[in-house]
Design goal:
With about 240 residues, the chain is α/β, with parallel strands linked by helices. The chain is built from 11 helices and 12 strands. The chain has helices at about 30-40, 50-55, 65-75, 85-95, 105-110, 110-120, 150-160, 180-190, 200-210, 220-225, 230-235, and strands at about 1-10, 15-20, 20-30, 45-50, 75-80, 100, 125-130, 135, 140-145, 160-165, 190-195, 215-220. The chain has an 8-stranded parallel β-barrel with strand order 1-4-5-6-7-10-11-12, surrounded by 8 helices. Helix 1 runs parallel beside helix 3. The longest helix has 11 residues, at about 65-75. The radius of gyration is 16 Å and the shape is globular.
Length: about 240
């Protein structure tokens, strides 16, 4: 299982939101690239980056910060937030980002998703942000009418290789991750699933690894010290 320690960005700073609420934001660092170097020193090989302003407003408002993280860490970087057309996909991938994550666009613009997968294959991942059994869009601010199963079936048919699956109600809440959700989805579908939201203890890491899940994102638990990233990386190797 691959661990993806996370950096969420607003205004060039590393932050965390509570349950996706932009009004409940904690700033952890003015220099996200320094956090990325700590990830590397802990043995991490991958980073999950979200441009939260991009997620809310579209575009790449924090592109310079994202590229600085990539350049200074040298780690595998996947980026999500506001990627809603091929121009933005091309901008990230041509600049050296390893994989981009489509969120809202995967629901609202299937033609774009198909074109991106056709052109870039496994360098395109999709985010399944789940609120009460449905997919949420627009930086988690709106709930779509698409169920989780409908979404997974559609993504699998299109040829999406990787789905980052987030239970919004667990995100940043430090209540543990939704093990039953990931167990069900991993048995039902053939895509690579990355668990996101509420991964808050070594017990979560161990349980997800035992499911043979593709990946897990560590967010708030790293910043609060609830998970020792070095020990977590060693545990999944």
């Amino acid at each position: 299982m691959i661990l993806f320690p996370a950096i969420d960005i607003v205004g060039g700073k590393a932050v965390r939101l509570y349950k996706g609420d932009y009004d409940q934001m904690t700033v952890y660092s003015d220099h996200p690239e320094e956090i990325a170097l700590d990830f590397k020193n802990c043995g991490a090989t991958h980073i999950h980056i979200v441009d939260l302003e991009g997620a809310r407003d579209g575009g790449t408002p924090n592109l310079d910060t994202v590229l600085k993280i990539k350049e200074q860490s040298g780690l595998y970087c996947e980026v999500g937030g506001g990627i809603r057309n091929m121009e933005v996909v091309d901008r990230y991938l041509s600049a050296g980002i390893d994989r981009v994550i489509l969120g809202t666009a995967a629901i609202e613009d299937e033609a774009f998703l198909r074109e991106a997968v056709k052109q870039y294959g496994e360098r395109i991942a999709v985010g399944a942000d789940i609120r009460e059994g449905f997919i949420a869009v627009k930086g988690w601010l709106e709930r779509s009418q698409v169920t989780v199963d409908e979404f997974f079936e559609r993504m699998q048919d299109i040829g999406v290789k990787t789905i980052i699956c987030t239970d919004i109600n667990r995100d940043g809440a430090m209540r543990g991750t939704n093990l039953s959700l990931y167990r069900t989805m991993s048995r039902r579908y053939s895509v690579d699933i990355t668990a996101s939201g509420g991964v808050s203890s070594m017990d979560d890491i161990t349980a997800l690894k035992e499911m043979d899940l593709y990946g897990a994102i560590i967010g708030k638990a790293y910043y609060t010290g609830a998970i020792d990233l070095k020990k977590a990386v060693e545990a999944v190797q």
